[in-house]
Design a protein that fits this description.
Elements: H1 13-20, H2 22-51, H3 58-69, H4 83-88, E1 90-91, E2 93-94, H5 95-101, E3 108-110, E4 130-132, E5 139-143, E6 148-151, H6 157-164, E7 169-171, E8 183-185, H7 202-205, E9 223-229, E10 235-239, H8 244-249, E11 259-269, H9 283-287, H10 308-313, H11 322-327, H12 331-340, E12 342-349, H13 353-363, E13 369-377, E14 381-391, H14 400-413, E15 417-418, H15 428-434, H16 438-446, H17 457-460
Parallel strand pairs: 3-4
Antiparallel strand pairs: 5-6, 6-11, 7-11, 9-10, 9-11, 12-14, 12-15, 13-14
Helix pairs in contact: 3-5, 13-14
Length: 466
């Protein structure tokens, strides 16, 4: 962009090489490694799905979690159609059992390493909390009669679409990035704290705003049931009809009400469209059309990534795994991104869209923004727009903390919402003013979560993220 303000150049030779020639490491190491990983992961998923072995392990995994928290080993299975799956769930429960027996010394969180998440930051809180292992990454059951699919929380969007598409089915809402997991996308339903959270578990517990539908809403709105391990190690399945209060509190709760172990999601027959002009494109390539370029962020990782010669020669290898990029990120690159890079999604009412866009332009002047619309009902139907700004700010007065706080204040004052995968500099009071905690607090009290899990703010504030 004209007048673009470039970040200061690194002073040491090593920092200069790491920042300006990172593409060498990415092209010759991370891209081949990502490709091999994807092939092996795909083959592993195919074998498990067609052998139908995942349902026979699920209960065992859940039981392991219960044991870590603290619960007797004689619990009944919740679903007799996934016996193995329930055994996996029991493995989870056993971890919760152990945590209870050890005296509930520190609150719990998942043991998944921060570098494996698709989000921008790693959680520092994992170093001080009790880590519970959740090894749940399989599609459990495709029920064409009920038009639903049961999946574990670490199932990714790419994995799920690769499973459903050959069967002639798809999700009503398909987030574009392959590596987003189910658990990350389920967010709290009515935009209070209970509605903001992006893996399948991530799409549920985090914020499923990256993709939405005028007909179906957010990703959480096509989820019909959740299976969880609670603070006491017991398991529960909740839906709109059973434990409805808990069901509506799960999205955007960031794993602070329980451990998500399975999700039931609506599926639809893949539709075929006739248009005056026909362009043939693999359906999964359309679903995940932003994956290869990580939207437009690939240009900051591989400067020539959009060149014709690169796209023909190595385009089939991109993108590098985001988790591997985070794992191999040097301190110099991290500092550069902290001070000279902006990644935010803000959900604002349509009525203030003009003012919001003007503010974004004034504060960061990121040339490319993503707009997603979503209907939100809070006693009435309201149209919200998600403004996503990702890139290097082109203004001279950009400051990561001060700039973000000014935008947060605008969004809060206009009854909007910040997506919590990004940096949040709000105080806890400001955070609770943005998100209605009433139902969330009721569920925290009802299921004895106070000493078992941190509050949402304790997991999303910039102060607890690296």
């Amino acid at each position: 962009a004209a007048g673009k303000v470039l970040p200061p150049q690194p002073t040491s030779l090593i920092a200069y090489v790491l920042i300006n020639y990172r593409w060498v490491f990415v092209c010759f190491f991370l891209l081949p490694l990502s490709f091999v990983y994807d092939i092996l992961y795909y083959l592993r998923n195919r074998v498990i799905f067609y052998a139908n072995s995942a349902p026979n392990k699920h209960a065992e995994r859940v039981r392991a979690v219960q044991e870590q928290v603290g619960i007797p080993s004689c619990l009944p299975l919740l679903r007799t159609d996934f016996v193995a799956a329930q055994l996996t769930c029991h493995a989870l429960s056993l971890q919760v059992l152990k945590w209870n027996k050890d005296g509930r010394k520190t609150p719990m969180c998942t043991a998944r390493p921060g570098w494996q998440n698709i989000s921008y930051r790693r959680g520092l809180y994992k170093k001080t909390l009790s880590n519970i292992k959740i090894n749940m990454m399989d599609v459990l059951k495709v029920d064409t009669t009920a038009k639903s699919v049961w999946v574990e929380p670490l199932v990714t969007m790419g994995q799920l679409s690769a499973t459903l598409s050959p069967l002639g089915w798809c999700l009503a809402i398909v987030p574009e990035l392959d590596d987003l997991t189910v658990g990350t996308f389920v967010c709290i339903h009515h935009i209070p704290v209970s509605s903001l959270c992006s893996s399948l578990g991530g799409l549920v517990m985090g914020t499923g705003i990256e993709t939405s539908s005028h007909r179906y809403g957010l990703f959480q709105h096509i989820c019909t049931s959740y299976e969880l391990v609670l603070a006491d190690g017991s398991t529960v399945i909740c839906s709109k009809d059973v434990h409805a209060d808990l069901f509506y509190s799960i999205p955007w709760s960031y794993g602070t009400l329980g451990f998500l172990t399975a999700v039931e999601i609506q599926i639809h027959v893949e539709a075929k469209f006739d248009t005056p002009e026909t362009e043939f494109m693999p359906l999964r390539d359309y679903f995940h059309r932003h994956s290869r370029s990580i939207f437009w962020e690939i240009q900051d990782i591989i400067p020539f990534g959009n060149s014709t010669w690169f796209r023909y020669l190595l385009g089939w290898l991109v993108p590098p795994k985001v988790s591997l990029l985070k794992l191999t990120q040097s301190d110099a690159i991290k500092e550069l991104y902290d001070n000279h890079h902006f990644i935010q999604d803000m959900l604002v009412p349509m009525s203030c869209l003009h003012d919001a866009l003007h503010l974004f332009h004034q504060e960061v002047h990121v040339r490319t923004c993503m707009l997603n619309t979503d209907n939100k009902g809070q006693g009435r139907t309201s149209l919200f727009v998600d403004i996503g700004a990702y890139g290097v700010p082109s203004v001279a007065n950009f400051h990561p903390v001060h700039t973000t706080r000014r935008i947060e204040a605008f969004v809060r004052n206009h009854h909007g919402f910040q997506m919590m995968y990004a940096d949040s500099y709000m105080s806890e009071t400001e955070f609770e003013a943005m998100f209605d905690h009433s139902l969330y607090d009721q569920m925290r009290a009802k299921y004895d979560c106070a000493g078992a899990f941190p509050r949402v703010f304790g997991k999303v504030s910039r102060a607890v993220r690296d």
